[in-house]
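Support reply, case 0932

Customer input (verbatim):
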Amino acid sequence: MQEAIALAKKGTGRVSPNPLVGAVIVKDGEVIGRGYHEKYGQPHAERNALSSCSVSPEGADMYVTLEPCCHHGKQPPCTEAIVAAGIKRVIIGSSDPNPLVSGKGVVFLKEHGIEVEEGFMKEECDALNDIFFHYIRTGRPFVTMKYAMTMDGKIAAFTGKSKWITGEEARKHVHGERNRNTAIMVGVGTVIADDPMLTCRIEGGRNPVRIICDSRLRTPIASSLVLSTDEAPVIIATCSNDKKKAAEYIEKGCRILNVKEKDGRIDLDDLMKKLGEEKIDSILLEGGGTINWEAIKSGIVNRVQAYIAPKLLGGKDAKTPVEGKGAPSPQEAVMLGESRITKLGDDLLIESEVISDVHGNS
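Our regenerated output:
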């Protein structure tokens, strides 16, 4: 199963909105087949593993990280292929919350005389597909709010300079996250201040869809994002009805997505609904303090990634990761949990799940 998990990870950035899945086939104590879901629309892990077998898989065991599908989608059901191959036993890591599967795959296998063991290394297998599980249950993107800061909580010096807060290893990790997420999102303030590209700069990486939250269409036409739509799609989410201005962005290859307005800003909840309908299952939020607070306040953030550098910048006016009005008391703060710490060179990455939002909702 550990090998199946490692195989599944190889599909990162290429299978969404499908899950990451790996499969290993064992016969007489020897691995005879391996496979993983390599790309959305292509064969699933189980079929890839079966087609790679060095000998007949009849009577073999299959280890698979996620319950095999039993419905027709872009690919035929994997359960049928497992039965046809004569597999004797299937060991499953995660159950599939997709209503089209959700236990039906296990039932089908058992009805055809296959022994099934469920929940094997469940925690490790579940960790592969936090994005998929959230998206399939809610229809909305899994949002990770990411920022890099000094140990005194500054994301830039009082001069506005922020390159670079963290070291090379931490920055490389960020590009891995850009590859993992379907989209990356910033506010127009970040575009104006930093003119970012928001691409993935790792070998073999995939550029995310780039989303700008720009309620009044203030994104500079000459910005790097607008001028690079041939490298990766750019969506400008706006409340503006200025069709003449919108046409300028459309001419450059950008897409305008009109969303509802709330308190003079983009309604982020409405934006998430629209993006989910377009099969955007995950977003890396790399904005500044303003949009970070709006995202937290709206309840769309699922995870926080804080890259912390062993530096002190100081400055009462220096920018912090989350600004806005803020919570009125520590008791009313956004609560985080299930924290994990990773050392990246001289820097630390602290990842935490959002347990409750500013409204106290879990």
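We compared this against your earlier run and they match. Two observations from our side: The two ends are 32 Å apart (CA to CA). The chain has a mean pLDDT of 94. Please reopen the case if you see a mismatch on your end.
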